[in-house]
Amino acid sequence: MTDLPETNLVMLTLVKPEGQLEVYFERRPMPEPKPHEVLVKVLATPINPSDLGLLFGGADMATARASQRDDLPMITADIPPAGMRAMGGRIGDALAIGNEGSGLVVKAGASPEAQALLGKTVALLGGEMYAEYRCLPVQMAMPLPDGTDPVDGASCFVNPLTSLAFTETMRMEGHNAIVHTAAASNLGQMLVKICAKDGIPLVNIVRSDAQVEILKGIGATHIVNSSAEDFHDQLVAAIVETGATLGFDAIGGGKLAGQILAAMEVAAVKRMTTYSRYGSDTFKQVYIYGALDLGPTILNRSFGLTWSLSGFLLTPFMAKAGMEVVGRMRQRVVDELTTTFKSHYSHEISLTEALDIDTAQAYNAKKTGEKYLIRP
Amino acid sequence: MTDLPETNLVMLTLVKPEGQLEVYFERRPMPEPKPHEVLVKVLATPINPSDLGLLFGGADMATARASQRDDLPMITADIPPAGMRAMGGRIGDALAIGNEGSGLVVKAGASPEAQALLGKTVALLGGEMYAEYRCLPVQMAMPLPDGTDPVDGASCFVNPLTSLAFTETMRMEGHNAIVHTAAASNLGQMLVKICAKDGIPLVNIVRSDAQVEILKGIGATHIVNSSAEDFHDQLVAAIVETGATLGFDAIGGGKLAGQILAAMEVAAVKRMTTYSRYGSDTFKQVYIYGALDLGPTILNRSFGLTWSLSGFLLTPFMAKAGMEVVGRMRQRVVDELTTTFKSHYSHEISLTEALDIDTAQAYNAKKTGEKYLIRP
């Protein structure tokens, strides 16, 4: 392989005890792969909402200001007391960022498994991808078919596996249709394609007419606009038609999760023949898997007593689902990488541009339809 | 047996389409038991919060006014639009009320099972107990040991089985300790005694110093007052000490359910050795089983992504738990009727007094420590 530089540029996020967040770069010695490890030159790594949670966390980004450290850009911001409480566990630890990415294996440890990956384009999971290089165990690197564009391989895990986890959860927990919010997102579009292919009825909730058009364009059938005046009636009608009793909510804050449960209950009560003061006996489940709105979740409990609202996270889901299911999910991602699971990026930026203050404020706004890809 | 009257006085609750609630009495023909049924003279029947949900439902009781019908008291109240929506399924149906009670079997159907109950004092489940007589299948009547005071047998099901269902749920779902709200209630006091007997750590949340004293008086060890300034710290300390990851909330509205999840998360994070932006991987469950506060549930989601908030209702729990568990629970209630499961009533009233307007307003206030028993 080509000669490697002696150092590796890594992005770090640090919460200081005095209530300040610092995000900056550090030059670290180039890692040397152990026998079971590979050293990967990172070629593409996306900025997912889950990365932003670690990158800027509970800091008040309205106070963000630019400076420099070792001639490289650095961002500083104040952290309000609530943010400090939420991040108490990470004070003083400079943490590397970046859940997933793709890259080229430029050096490999002595084991045959590691050597087999040398020169291959791989998809990467395991954090710390916002760097020039990443050294990690072979099982965290998934070889991609020859000729795969690193851009297509950059987002192989978080969105594809999460959207597949939704349909697997539906089957495991005995539901027949799904309601999804922030449905025009990259993940939402993947879910539309999975559900179309698998014949699963899907109710897509979006927030604007523009997003309705995006989903119509990829063939979604049930699309409900939460900013429409007749949103509740539209939602009930779509749930009556699909029979959905399972929802996944990326927003978290506000009334939406409760409105979904309430609409499911209205649909369930329509199917009942006798009145019960406790509501329907149809079990209704909504999972909150994101936090686009960090405000409180507000539940007007007009949906009986047979319901559950829960947090959803990919890692414990995979642990519960088991090796066989996860293996099947990963294989499907590779097989359908340029179709079902193709991600669209509105902006490509360099590693150092990611800490340009204006660029950072832009991607931190988490606008649907905008997605940033770092190409170190 | 003694001669029976020709008619049976029954209390009914009716939602009228024009937005009015009427609660009144009706004289109905005395029912004739079918072969598998018994006719029971109701001797005692409690007013539980779950009965009030059906009795007055979504009506605005500030507008309640007294009148008469057939020389018997009647209550009328206005129903706001939200109440009408919630009660849409019962408009125009006059519903009988009263979940449980106790009484004397005065007539029995021809089957040996029914005949065996003749002359016995029985505990009753199955609704429509706010009446002079109740005719129902033998399996809804549980014979009480000879000499049982009907007052002691009046509340054999709702509170005893619900409190036992909490500890059964704890075992079934793999938790080791419980948090309970409105813990000075009749149900809460039963739970204190069950947990003491079974060695289950229990965190009792109450709302006043007077309630703290009630629970101290029956030997509760962890008592937290939600009106205290250091409530959050007290709650965290009690949860750290007990390791509780399961909560049952009778209040429903407001921030309490979320505060319990947050305190469980603080306790779980204390046990972690590495930081995770997603919070702890300790599963935290709170069930809402009551609605002392009908306002919205407000969750400040500071408890990671490994949590669930769900509705809890006795009937589906028993269906899920199965015959063996339910049989064991019922036997324990009979065995410990005058100890663990003894209910305390602050007021005994007659059937017609139950619709006296001042009396109704008093029991509808659902004050902890006050419990009404109807003795028809």
Describe this structure as you would to a colleague.
The structure is a homodimer of 376-residue chains. The model of chain A has no long low-confidence stretch (mean pLDDT 94). Chain A starts with 6 loop residues before the first strand and ends with a strand. By secondary structure, chain A is of the alpha/beta class. The longest helix of chain A has 15 residues, at 158-172. In chain A, the strands form four sheets. In chain A, strands 3, 7, 8, 9, 10, 19 and 20 form a seven-stranded mixed β-sheet that branches. Chain A has a six-stranded parallel β-sheet with strand order 13-12-11-14-16-18, with helices on both faces. In chain A, strands 4-5-2-1-6 form a five-stranded antiparallel β-sheet, with no helix packed on it. Chain A has twelve helices and 20 strands. Helices cover 30% and strands 30% of the residues of chain A. In chain A, α5 (158-172) packs across α10 (314-321) and α8 packs across α9. In chain A, α7 links the parallel β12 and β13 (222-225). At the A-B interface, α1, β17 and β18 of A face α1, β17 and β18 of B. β17 of chain A pairs antiparallel with β17 (293-299) of chain B.
Overall strand count of chain A: 20
Number of helices of chain A: 12
Distance between the termini of chain A: 19 Å
State the shape of chain A: globular
Q: Percent of residues of chain A in beta strands?
A: 25-35%
Taking all Cα atoms into account, the compactness measure Rg of chain A is: 22 Å
Low-confidence stretches of chain A: none
Helical proportion of chain A, percent range? 25-40%
Kindly name the structural category of chain A.
Answer: alpha/beta
